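Researcher: Here's a chain I'd like modeled. Treat it as a single chain, no partners, no ligands.
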Amino acid sequence: MKRLIGIILVLVILIGLTVPGLTMGAQQTNDTITDKPAARADGSKWQIGYCESESFITYNHTLVAIVKGLEEIGWITDLEGFEQVAGNADSRAIWNWLASREVSPYIEFVDNAYYNLRDPEFEQDAVINRLNNVKDLDLMLVMGAAAGNVLSNTDHNTNILVFAASNAVRSRIIDSVEDSGKDNVWAHMDEKRFERQTRAFYDIVKFKKLGIVYEDSENARIYSAVNELESLAREKGFEIVRYHVTEPRSAAEYPRYYQEVQTAYNKLAREVDAVYITIASLESNKLPQLFQPFYDNKIPVFSQLGNIEVKSGAMMTVSVMDEENIGRFGADTISKCLQGAKPRDLQQSFQSAPKITLNAEVVKKLDFKLPFELLIVVDEVY
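Model: Modeled as a single isolated chain. Structure tokens:
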């Protein structure tokens, strides 16, 4: 009975902390701007650019969701054929598709304004010079903490909207949830999302030793939710067993990286009673092999990233990245910026509704006994 009450309480807390749809967006400090979408005063289109920290599936999904959000509120008027590229392509291909078509009479996704910090041809000085001196872009969509740092901590006036940074305050992109600190900078914040996620995992599994693998760097500690796990461990009294790896900086480094990850997982499988797969550079098709030691030793595998890893071999996740509604929130923010609002004046906090996802085959492999009260609130099962 205590277990049942505990799980129900954590689910109530998860639901109570969320804001569905655009409720939060409607509470922005600039009261909702009701003007219809419009081009510039001279009739030309608003120019939008894009910069991401690296190639990462969450960035692709978030970009797609923002585009669809802009369509919902009228800024984009023609996405015929978009679904195919949205579902099967990376961010560069998505951007090229948007830039090569007349998707809107009001905005243009500029074809030569796509940047990825990991591209060999990326030149930070050239990008900053464009924003500071050429000034041909009205707004930059930015994905990830590294790109957010590059573009927000430089002296220019181009509007910078940062998405998919685990914690933009800790990453020093913005000053606080309430105030970005710069008129032209805004970052989406859901500062409690990994706290909610890790607490839910603990309340479901009640582990005594939790295994994690991550890169031993300041940025990796942030996006791997290490601080949240350490705080929860102090509160609940469980032990964290950790191994460090060095993430790949190029395609040539992936074999070495996967060997490090596999070695770490092999060790953890003999030392812990649950494992939290932190956000890292793991290709989904590699997960069944990487996770085999956990299957062999009946170790519950929880994914921080979300559904794609559950589909590919993790036991479960409590997803905290509702890209669809984050995209709507982002589109609402973009609309206000193009209508004259300062990014600094707009609401940055938006909490995603949690979704519980299970992999039934993995649950069976692990002989894990799922409480009935959890089963009745599961959103998706693979």
